[in-house]
Design brief:
Elements lengths: L2 E4 L4 H10 L6 E5 L2 H9 L3 E4 L5 H8 L4 E5 L1 H4 L10 H14 L4 E5 L11 E5 L5 H13 L4
Helix pairs in contact: 1-6, 3-5
Length: about 150
């Protein structure tokens, strides 16, 4: 089933995309860096390039995805966010976007105050210093039949 990584142009996001990418698996990435987007496309990832605070663009990119992985760092790392005043507004926008797109499983990476109840299966993963371990945790949650 398709999975999207929102904020895939962060170090944690790149590790998650790398871990999830497999033959026959549809992986999507929402990025604001054209360079990163080009590199991911060459690896077979479907890329949405845009402003991570654009709720309607995020929702469109999430259409028909089973899982969405939101890398909270992307809302707080200082990149240009034209459609929100604060990082919390970005995160609330992502929550609304995945609900609008009918994503069934949300995996939030990092952060400490995130919106709840956006989708039936919502989990939180704390970001730690080991991005590869984080990527394994996200992959296990994405692949689990039930959380």
């Amino acid at each position: 089933m398709p999975v999207i990584v929102i904020g895939a142009d962060t170090s944690a996001g790149l590790q998650v995309v790398e871990r999830l990418t497999a033959p026959g698996r549809e992986v999507r990435a929402f990025v604001s860096s054209a360079d990163v987007g080009d590199r991911l496309r060459k690896r077979g990832v479907k890329v949405a390039l845009g402003d991570l605070s654009d709720q309607s663009h995020v929702a469109a990119a999430c259409t028909n995805c089973f899982s969405a992985v939101m890398i909270v760092e992307a809302a707080t790392d200082g990149r240009e966010l034209s459609f929100a005043q604060t990082s919390q507004q970005v995160i609330v926008g992502w929550s609304a976007a995945i609900k609008e797109a009918r994503v069934r499983r949300a995996i939030w990476v990092g952060g400490d105050s995130l919106p709840a109840g956006a989708v039936p299966e919502e989990v939180f993963v704390a970001a730690g210093p080991d991005a590869s371990l984080l990527a394994e945790q996200v992959a296990a949650l994405d692949e689990a039949a039930v959380i």
